[in-house]
Amino acid sequence: CRIKKPQFHVAVSCKGTEYSHQQLLDIAHRYLKEMDYAEERQPLLVYAHHDTGNSHIHIVTSSVTPDGHKIDTHE
Predict the structure, then answer these.
(1) 52: Cα separation from own chain's centroid
(2) Which residues of the chain fall below pLDDT 50?
(3) Which residues fall within 8 angstroms of residue 41, CB to CB, at 6 or more apart?
């Protein structure tokens, strides 16, 4: 109840179709690992859609780990 932003959402985009959705998915997983959001059992949604001319994905996860502690987001 003390966590003000329990979710994390970011979009990863590239110019045009420079990267495939699989490449963007690989980038998303690498990004999440580097940002400490890759703990085992961490909930994760990666969604691709085509509402712009650029290939992009959205990443949604929790700012709370499966064991209940907050991931440090420097907020």
Answers:
(1) 19
(2) none
(3) 66
Structure tokens at 35: 């940002």
**Got the DSSP string for 15-56?**
STTSS-HHHHHHHHHHHHHHTT---TT--EEEEE--SSSS-E
Tokens 């969604």 belong to 47
Q: What one-letter code names the amino acid at 14?
A: C
Q: How far apart are CA 54 and CA 63, in angstroms?
A: 27
Task: Indicate whether this model's pTM tops 0.85.
Answer: no
Dihedrals φ, ψ of 64, to 5°? -115, 130
Amino acid 75: pLDDT: 55
The position carrying tokens 């961490």 is: 42
Q: pLDDT (tens digit, 9 = 90+) per residue, 41-58? A: 999 999 988 888 999 999
